[in-house]
Amino acid sequence: MYRFYRGFFNQRISFCKGRTSLISAFPRATNFSTSNIDAIRPRRAILYVPGNDRRKIEKLSNLKVDCAVLDCEDGVAINKKSEARNVIREITESFDFKNIEFAVRINSLDSGLAEEDLLSILNCRNLPDTLMVPKVESADDIIWIHDKLKLLSKHGSEAKKINLVFFIESAKSLLDLRQICEKAVDLSKKGPFQFEGLVFGSDDFCADIGATRTTEATELLTARQLFVIVAKSFKVQAIDMVHINYKDEAGLLKICEEGARMGFTGKQIIHPSQVPIVQRAFSPSHEKVEWAKELIRLFKKHQKEGKGAFTFRGAMIDKPLLLQAENIIKMSEQLND
Predict the structure, then answer these.
(1) I want to staple 30 with a disulfide (CB 3.0 to 4.6 A). Which of 125, 150, 260, 307 is the partner?
(2) Which parts of the chain span the membrane according to its record (predicted)?
């Protein structure tokens, strides 16, 4: 068995060495979205704001963040939950979110508070764009959300679907993620929500498996990779973990670029100062857009000449790289809309 694994890894190392020239042709790495994700509005940065803190909510008008999440869960003390619901309901009637996606994170289903959160939110004059559900553990939780949204909604059967983004925060939910997503996709077809994304809850995940959270997050590497693979297999967004030390800008940039290389489409943030760093890291750089445009132009030229693969900036270019270049252009155009 040892010889088998040693041989396998030696083969992989040899293969990777042969791909060095291709890798070096790329500018700074960022995320390559799968084909259907570019139809979903960008969520490069999702900023949590306590739902009971009117002052912080009103400051959103000065930010250019993709998604603002008015929080009823972890960001709100247990004795302030009712106040958070009231403030959020009042905010929906008066506050102009402009181009910011307006989302609400309810309490977890096992808290006993989720139904009351939903009842309050769904009776707002203006519904949030997106509902975020923490600590989803099974497909049964998705069924519960579906049934409650249908039962409690006062906006009628013709109401626009609310976007659904849910959190994976335990070992069990990660291992069952495929089944959970299958149920969400199935219920999205004719149900009251549109399944659009997944959020990785790193700190609760670490607590669940008994891991020690470190700055480098090596203890979460396998979990994050598996999380991205499942999310992308269902063509939904994958939102990465929070970087808690909001003053550590260098560390934030490093972990953002790592997440983008892994395939994450965005990141959770807890402070407005993190917005520009995160959104820039999960956007195609000017150099990458230029690279993609030139690659596409040359690919079309070679196709007309009846040629297949060709060399571009020291790398062999074929159809998979063309698809990646096209995704970069789509993302760039979407962000400039």
Answers:
(1) 260
(2) none
Could you give the angle at which helices 81-94 and 114-122 cross, rounded to 10 degrees? 20
Q: Which of 262, 81, 252, 69 is nearest to 166 (CA)?
A: 69
Taking each helix axis as running N to C, give the angle between helix 177-188 and helix 221-233, from 0 to 180 degrees, rounded to the nearest 10.
30
How far apart are alpha carbons 193 and 224 in whole angstroms? 26
To the nearest 10°, report the CA torsion of 189, 195, 196, 200: -150
Q: Which of 220, 224, 218, 225 is nearest to 207 (CA)?
A: 220
Shortest CA distance to 289 belongs to which of 336, 232, 337? 336
- Annotated binding-site residue numbers: 105, 169, 204
Dump pLDDT digits (tens) for 110-168: 999 999 999 999 988 889 999 999 999 999 999 999 999 999 876 555 567 999 999 99
Q: What is the pTM of this model?
A: 0.79
Q: Residues annotated in the binding site for substrate, as ranges?
A: 105, 169
